[in-house]
Amino acid sequence: MLTVDEVAAALRLSLSATYTLIRSGVLPATHIGRRIRIVERVLQNFIEVGGRGWPGGWRQRPADEEHAA
User: Fold this and answer.
1) Backbone phi, then psi, for 24, in 5-degree steps?
2) CA-wise closest residue to 54 among 63, 41, 67, 66
3) Cα–Cα distance between 3 and 9 in angstroms, integer?
4) Hey, how many other C-beta atoms are within 10 angstroms of the C-beta on 36?
5) What residues contact residue 28 under an 8 Å CB cut-off, 6+ apart?
6) 3-class SS string, the chain
7) What's the Cα-to-Cα distance from 10 to each of 28, 53, 68, rounded to whole Å?
8) What is the pLDDT of residues 44-58, one digit of tens each?
9) Any residues with CB less than 8 A from the CB of 42 and at least 6 apart, and which?
């Protein structure tokens, strides 16, 4: 799991911009107590889809996985 600092560095964004993505739900994050963590796989998926949320939301599988099932 990555910290917000690590994610901001990977995306080359400011901390403020990274927190905005998290608050808006575009970049899903897990809250562990008062700390925020982002699963590395989720960050990779976020980058692969060009920084957009998945169709139907992050809690659902991407459309291409649905057709493969």
Assistant:
1) -75, -10
2) 63
3) 10
4) 17
5) 22, 38, 39, 42, 58
6) CEEHHHHHHHHCCCHHHHHHHHHHCCCCCEEECCEEEECHHHHHHHHHCCCCCCCCCCCCCCHHHHHHC
7) 15, 18, 30
8) 988 887 776 655 554
9) 27, 28, 58
Pairing of strands 2-3, 30-32: unpaired
The whole-model pTM stands at: 0.71
The two tokens of residue 57 are 């939301």
Q: Which two tokens mark 9?
A: 């560095």
CB burial of residue 67 (10 Å; 0-12, 13-18, 19+): exposed
